[in-house]
Amino acid sequence: MKRSPAGSRRRSIDAAVTSDTDECIVWPHARFGDGYGRFRFHGKELSAHRAVLILVTGKDPADLEAAHDPETCSDRGCINPRHLRWATHAENMDDILIAGTRPTGGDAVFSNKVTEAQVHAIRAASAAGASSTEIAARFPISATQVRRIVRREQWGWLPDSTGRAPTDEHQTQAEHTPTSPAHS
To answer: How far is CA 88 from CA 20, 21, 39, 66, 91, in A?
Structure first.
């Protein structure tokens, strides 16, 4: 990734702080893997929207998160202070549900190492007789993770490549095994 010219990130933050627009102001620089803008502020790496909120409010509450107002904005890269507020973690999670931006699985989850298409390819390779080690060499995951995908312990909700929904035979053993003798 090409680095931004010195000071350009700070200029973007300052422009957002002084802006009077109601439109999203999208962070034009580097982002964390989850889609939020990255900014070094007072010696530590922060989300850009948190840095904007700190500058606008003059506060940096450790127990609160910088949250996007779900009625106004659902762009993780937005740094418009009119779209931001301080919120508890629970409030922020509620906002995510209201806005419909909570990753619920599959390609929507930023931290996944494989895509839905790759999961289909992993299962097809296993069905064709390839070993977990051979399959893992083709993807950015371990052989253990390959076995979990094949047994549907991971990505179990994903229909097979023909579009059929998972059946009872694809449910994981964990779904059928009590967690302790007290629960049986």
So the answer is: 26, 26, 22, 9, 5
Residue 170 is encoded by which pair of tokens?
Answer: 């694809």
In this structure, how many other beta carbons lie within 10 angstroms of the beta carbon of residue 43? 5
Nearest residue to 9 (alpha-carbon basis) of 35, 34, 42, 37: 37
3-state SS assignment for residue 179: coil
Select from 113, 40, 26 the least CA-distant residue to 76. 26
d(CA 114, CA 125): 15
Contacts of 60 (CB under 8 A, 6+ apart): 54
Nearest 10 degrees: Cα torsion 105, 126, 160, 166:
-80
CATH code 3.90.75 region(s) in the chain? 8-99
Rounded Cα gap, residues 55 and 81, in angstroms: 9
Q: Is the CATH code 3.40.190 the one for domain 8-99?
A: no
Q: Look at the block and give the residue holding tokens 């991971």.
A: 154
Per residue in 108-158, pLDDT tens? 555 577 888 899 999 999 999 999 999 999 988 899 999 999 998 888 777
